[in-house]
Structure formats: structure tokens, C-alpha cells
Amino acid sequence: MAKYVVRARIDVDGEVEKSDIIGAIFGFTEGLFGEEFDLRDLQDKGRIGRISVEIKTEKGKTTGEILIPSNLDRIETALLAALIENVEKVGPYQAKIQVIDIVDVRAEKLKKIMDRASEIAKKYFVEKAPDIKEILNKIGEAVRIAEIIYYGPEKLPAGPDIESSDTIIIVEGRADVLNLLRYGYRNVIALEGAHGSKVPETIVKLASKKTAILFVDGDRAGELIAREVIKVADIDFVTRAPPGKEVEELTGKEIAKALKNLVPAKQFLESLEKRIEAEAKQQIQATGTAAPQPQPPQEIPSQQIPTVSQATPATAATQVVEAKQVVTPPVVEVKPVAGFEMPLKIVEEGKKLIGTLEAILFDAGWNIVERVPVRDLVEKLQQVEPGKIQAIVFDGVITQRLLDVASEKGVKLILGVRIGNISRKPENIFVVTFQDIFSITS
User: Which residues lie in Low complexity bias regions (predicted)?
Assistant: First the structure.
């Protein structure tokens, strides 16, 4: 349950969809206060809920209401409210967002409970009027939800029985922990976004001495997380949410069914690897891309590239890039990306960018034009002449706003950490994620 709900009104000078408004909110606020207050990361960690938008279009203009559930404290929620008012455009149209209210959900619920308790007392305790505090205490005891704790040096969200229980349930994020606590599972602990690049040491230690069940979302990202965690920690069993669903949104019945259908970790991994191999073969047959051939003696595989956390699956237009290092002769090797040739040095530059929050702009000759902070990328791109920039490689999320501006400036290739909430992809741009490249070398 969220602590607060931010209500805001939006006015757009054009006809847009709900997804356009949500994309604009993420795009305009991205990077303003660094990673610690990035809306997408806050949402992934369960600190803010799903953004809800209701709109109506009249005479070529769009108006509506935005609702954002918040589990932040009062000051952080106020900052969130001020942050969304920073949105100035939705797509090509001018827009204005004005916060109209911040609802304290807990206070509203408490008032309803107190009012209802008074009604019950008057209706069912006519002969003997009990003390209202006694009623409130009993109601509070009946509806009490186990409080979340923060376990280990990494302060991972967990249930109160994580230390005493012989079996632990490992989930992805804080919102997943809260949902399992709601249905009585008190031996749960979250990876809290640390998976992908590094599994928390606390998880590794707990899994080594307890029966460990890994419970992930029912999407492609959940599979990737499971594969990485199994490689590092001693996981005994794996289970998943139903396809397309997240653990945080499951009902008690769905959670029980998923835990009943868990499989040994080794069996899960073997099944996953077989399916990935089958999909790769189908892709080769569909695209006509030749399978990797044995390399001559002068070529050796490059050093293993670390996997990026929370990777987004590639779009249909995105193909896998295989990065290699040529020892002799000293020439630049070029690999195809969906029909687009990208030199090896671009892949190497991408490896160096991880964790820097920087972007590199390349011209048609693959020369570096400029390096800029990710937060200034869109603004910088708007200032360059059309056709001057051919490719962008950056340590950040590929957003709808970035794609729209890049398309206008004639950019042909964008390589980023992951793909954000994209409602439409320009046909003249190839989109590639670090995961597409790194998965080959892992």
C-alpha cells in the first residue's frame, strides 16, 4: 500500500496517448537528480507505483489527470511532485503539468476505519458501550501486516523470519517482499536491483547454508536475472510468476501455485539454455545471419564483458553483435548490426562507458565528435546540425524523447544500457542494447 498519492493535472497542446505522457515524464526527469532519484529505478524498487493517466481529447488538445503512488517520505514525495512539473513537452507538443493534491493514503484509511468502527460499536454494542480505544486496538491487531526489515550490510529488504527460517525465498525487489509479506511469507529477501553486475554477498551467504528458492518475474528480464544469480549463489529451486506478470502483483493463490510448481535450479538452467539455443537457431534461419565460425589463429576472443543489470530484451530490429579483438594484422574488424556495420572500437568504447553516466557522439567516419554527460545528451543533440552525428553510445536508458530527437538529426545507430518505455520506434534508427552485445561474450 502506498503512503501517498500525487495528483496532477496535465494540459497538452495536441492530441497524444497515455503512453506518450508517461514516456515524457520518464524522459524529461531522467538524470536530473542522478541515479538515486531516477523515476524508473524508484519504480523498480517499489518506492513509487505505476503511473496512472486518464485523458480526454477535445478540439485538438489533450487534458487529463496523473496519479503517482509513492512510498517515499513526505519530503521526497514533495520533490517527486515538483519533478514531474518539469515536463515541458509531450512528443512535439507543448505541455504543462500542475500538481493539485497529495493524498495521505494512510490517514484516509485510518479515518475510514475509525468511522466504521464507531458505526459498528453503536450498532452491535448498544447495551454495553465499550471504550473506542479498545475497539481500535482490536481492529489494528486484526489487520496488522508484518513490517519489512533491512538485512545484512547491503540493507536488503526482507521479512522478519529471514534469519531463523531454514528456507528462504529470494525475490527481485522491495515491492515483491511487501507482497509476499502481505500473504504471510515472512522468510523472503530481495536482491534489490543489485543482481546482474553483482549478486549481494548476503544472498550468497544465506543460500550456502539454507534451502534457497529463487522467485522471479514471468518475463525475459526475470529469466536473465535467474541465470545470473544461479551462476553465483547456491540456489536449490527456481519458480516464476505467470508469463507477463510480476511477483509484486500476484494474488495469494497465484503465489502459492508458483511455489508449488518450483523446479530444481539445475533443471531450470538447462531448460533455459536449450530454449535460448533454439531461439538463436530460429533467428539465424529467419534472418539469414550465419552462425559464428571457428576463428583463425590470429584472432582470440576479447576479455569477458560484464553483464548489465536489469537488461531489456532487444527489439525485433536489433541483431546480436559479436565483439572480437584482432591481434594480427592490425586492422579494424567490422561486425553487422541489423544490416548496419559497426567497428570493433565502438564496442570497446561501450565497455568503458559502463558506470560513467557519459555519452559519446560519433560522426560518419566513426570519429568521436564529443563526450557529454547523459543528462545533457538530448539537449546537446538538439544543437547539432542534421547529419553530423551518425551514432550514439551512452551509459543510460534509450527513451522515446531521445529516439525522436535522434531521428530528426539523422542518427543511424543508438547503443545504450536498456530500452525504456517506447511507444514508437523510428524506422531509420538501429537500436542496440549493451545486453545484446554482452550476451555473446558471457
Answer: 282-292, 300-309
